[in-house]
Amino acid sequence: MRRRARFPSRPVGVRVRRPLPEFGPALLRAVVVLRRWWPEVVLGLGVALAILGPVLRRGYLLRYDLVFVPDPPFGAMVWGSGSELPRAVPSELLAVGLSQLVPGDIAEKSLLAGCLALAAVGAARLAPVSHPLARVAAGLGYVWNPWVYGRLHLGHWAVIAGYAALPWAYAWVLGVLRPPPDGGGPSRRSAVAGGLAVVLGGPAMVLAAVLTCAPALALARRWRAVVAGCATLVGLTAPWLLALTNRGGAIDLDERGVTAFAARADTPLGVLGSVATLGGIWSRYAVPVGRDQWPVALLALVLAAAAVWGFALTRRRWPSPAWWGLLAGAVLGTVIAVVPALPGGAQWMTALVEHVPLAGAVRDGTRLLAPLALLQAVGLGMVVESLVTTGARALAPLVMLAPVLLLPGLAWGLGGQLDPVRYPAEWSTVRAVVNQDPAGGSLVSLPWSSFRAYRWAGGVPVLDPAPRAFRRPVIGDQDVLVGRERIKGESRDSDHVAAALTVPGDPGPALRRLGVRYVLIQTDQPGGTAIESRFADAELVRQDGTLTLIRLADGGSSGSARTVGIGPTLGYSVLGGTLLIALLYPAARLRRMLLSGTFCRRDRQ
Amino acid sequence: MKASFNPLLTAVVAAAVGAVLGILAVSIGTSTITNSNTKPANVEQPIIVYGER
């Protein structure tokens, strides 16, 4: 009886097909997500393909600050243990970690594509609009603009990662201020997870995130959320902060960088007009083709004005503090970006950078236009939604595609400028020799220039790959040339080596005294052959193609190249702990405490 | 339900504030004490520009 009651309707001889419990819910969830968020999914994939389509074949993208190497080690650059500013912390850890799972070139393009897709999807989901065209317009407006073009041109993938995290971080703010009643918008967890990537962008993008998020929370008097959010940011930036402290000494930024990296007019509309249309980047090479033409500039200004008007329309759709907060953040960021370009502003900003620690984050201030880009993206989505609902439906696709029509140069690998290349074979040979040497000591990369121009990479200026290729600290030139202006770097070790190189004759003994064990000379670079001939009494380890590796006898033999200091260990431990608290489900209560500052059931958001 | 004292949140905030103040103190202190290596070395440098205004 008991058995019959347990299986009451199972006929004898009929096989019952049971659902797969492992895959059923996941597939169902995927279908639900796709049906609901298909415009965002299509947009994310489409944007990544449209921009990176031609470079998705194998090979490395090398240009300006975008440098990935094959099989990168967890070296000094990852830990920020050199004497230069730890600019690559913690983004380099992600790049190197991903490169352990997949080849480095695939990791590079995955990160780039992921950042672009994350930015588009984040903005599309943030905008308080419902029509698919409007959501796509918001996402497209956030990704397809001169700001992203300039950063992609200069290879600032980590800055783009911070930019991509911004809409997700703001979604968290909206969740704190007003949980969506219908479940619309990013879920709390996804908003937190996406927003955490903001720290990859370095201090400037962290500042951009604070400018974006803090005003809204402050206006709503959510002080506990402000404090908790700041504590989370401090926890996530712990590797950078500790590397900075461990480095010791002053942060002696060259004040000439303020004017060199200040916003400039890249349109006929002047600096203000250029910045209002999300341009104004300091390098004239990083400006899309056509922006210097009046019709393009005027249309871009009209589009920006329409987007701001659209943002004004969203006032009733967002909580008042959220609306005013984003507006305040955008204004603050724009002011910081513009000040160095105004009369007298450069002196004021220079004094700030000289006397206030960490104020160097505002150098290259156009990075702080990210909140304005977010505001305009939300506004553009609202404009399209208004067109759809007011009957001007035919105009909606045109406005949605306007960013693409005004900036076609972003498509297809920056109009063919991005080109995957392969490192010559000698790089892996030399890397293996140096990385297998257990002895300590640093490596000096010569000729003395922070940037290289490889013929096999199209002659595009690119940061010296050596610091990323070797486990031991690599000392190279840290100065950069902006036009004829030489902006001094911040590394004391580089200053010592530079001083040793200025003395005529063999620099080997002086370098040996500085703890240098290897000298890598890239002979295909300007001045490479000349510097090679100066090392008379050194041991030639390898001379392959374009690379010459020299070992200095007894140079830097004390210590080990594989040791990681207590500072990086502690910093990344704090970062890991913060991530665990923020993301792991069992720590949901802690996450509420740390990320929203609320822990009462009634306040659950 | 009214919020009460939370030791974990307090500890996190205290640690964050302490870290920021400590870094500021170290940075300001070292910037006033050390003033070395401000003289740029006049080493011959190949011309590969980062950009141009």
Could you walk me through the main structural features you see in this protein, from its secondary elements to its overall organization?
Chain B: This is DUF2613 family protein. The complex is a heterodimer of chains A (605) and B (53). Chain A is an alpha/beta fold. Helix content of chain A is 54%, strand content 6%. Chain A has helices spanning 2-6, 24-52, 76-79, 91-101, 104-126, 132-143, 146-153, 157-177, 188-196, 202-219, 223-236, 238-247, 256-260, 270-276, 294-313, 320-338, 345-355, 370-389, 395-406, 411-416, 425-435, 466-469, 492-502, 508-513, 528-532, 566-583, 588-596; strands at 442-446, 451-453, 461-463, 474-475, 480-482, 485-487, 516-522, 539-544, 547-551. Chain A is globular. Mean pLDDT of chain A is 88; it is low at 1-14, 16-20 and 599-605. Chain B has 53 residues and is mainly α. Helices cover 51% and strands 0% of the residues of chain B. Chain B contains 1 helix and no strands. Chains A and B meet through helix 11, helix 12, strand 2, strand 5 and helix 23 of A and helix 1 of B.
List the helices and strands and how they pair.
The complex is a heterodimer of chains A (about 600) and B (about 55).
Chain A lengths: L1 H5 L17 H29 L23 H4 L11 H11 L2 H23 L5 H12 L2 H8 L3 H21 L10 H9 L5 H18 L3 H14 L1 H10 L8 H5 L9 H7 L17 H20 L6 H19 L6 H11 L14 H20 L5 H12 L4 H6 L8 H11 L6 E5 L4 E3 L7 E3 L2 H4 L4 E2 L4 E3 L2 E3 L4 H11 L5 H6 L2 E7 L5 H5 L6 E6 L2 E5 L14 H18 L4 H9 L9
Parallel strand pairs in A: 1-4, 1-7
Antiparallel strand pairs in A: 2-3, 5-6, 7-9, 8-9
Chain B lengths: L6 H27 L20
